[in-house]
Amino acid sequence: MPKMTFVERDGTRRDVDAPVGLSVLEIAHKHDIDLEGACEGSLACATCHVVVDPEWAAKLSAPTDDEEDMLDLAFGLEKTSRLGCQIVMTDALDGLTVGLPKAG
Ligand code: FES
């Protein structure tokens, strides 16, 4: 099974199992990572904001306009910010690393 790494706000790295087909948000919840996801993946909030490790950012499919619009509302936006509910795990993403945003 692929794995992914969450970097928590204090810099702690958490390596977790990342089943193919689950979103980063679902994976976070499975492992008690503090990522909110208030709208449960329906692109109506920005509380599932994660900052993708720059090495991985280019490997993800590009965000949709709806995701971009929602990201504009996120706090602590960075160049590689994405919505965790829109990143779906695949075998190719084994090792994916995302950080929780410092603010918000
Ligand atoms: S959980 Fe609301 S946009 Fe991702």
Automatic annotation (TrEMBL):
<dbReference type="GO" id="GO:0046872">
    <property type="term" value="F:metal ion binding"/>
</dbReference>
<keyword id="KW-0408">Iron</keyword>
<dbReference type="InterPro" id="IPR018298">
    <property type="entry name" value="Adrenodoxin_Fe-S_BS"/>
</dbReference>
<keyword id="KW-0411">Iron-sulfur</keyword>
<dbReference type="InterPro" id="IPR012675">
    <property type="entry name" value="Beta-grasp_dom_sf"/>
</dbReference>
<dbReference type="InterPro" id="IPR036010">
    <property type="entry name" value="2Fe-2S_ferredoxin-like_sf"/>
</dbReference>
<dbReference type="GO" id="GO:0140647">
    <property type="term" value="P:P450-containing electron transport chain"/>
</dbReference>
<dbReference type="Pfam" id="PF00111">
    <property type="entry name" value="Fer2"/>
</dbReference>
<comment type="similarity">
    <text>Belongs to the adrenodoxin/putidaredoxin family.</text>
</comment>
<dbReference type="InterPro" id="IPR001041">
    <property type="entry name" value="2Fe-2S_ferredoxin-type"/>
</dbReference>
<feature type="domain" description="2Fe-2S ferredoxin-type">
    <location>
        <begin position="2"/>
        <end position="104"/>
    </location>
</feature>
<keyword id="KW-0001">2Fe-2S</keyword>
<keyword id="KW-0479">Metal-binding</keyword>
<dbReference type="GO" id="GO:0051537">
    <property type="term" value="F:2 iron, 2 sulfur cluster binding"/>
</dbReference>
<dbReference type="GO" id="GO:0009055">
    <property type="term" value="F:electron transfer activity"/>
</dbReference>
<protein>
    <submittedName>
        <fullName>Ferredoxin</fullName>
    </submittedName>
</protein>
<dbReference type="InterPro" id="IPR001055">
    <property type="entry name" value="Adrenodoxin-like"/>
</dbReference>
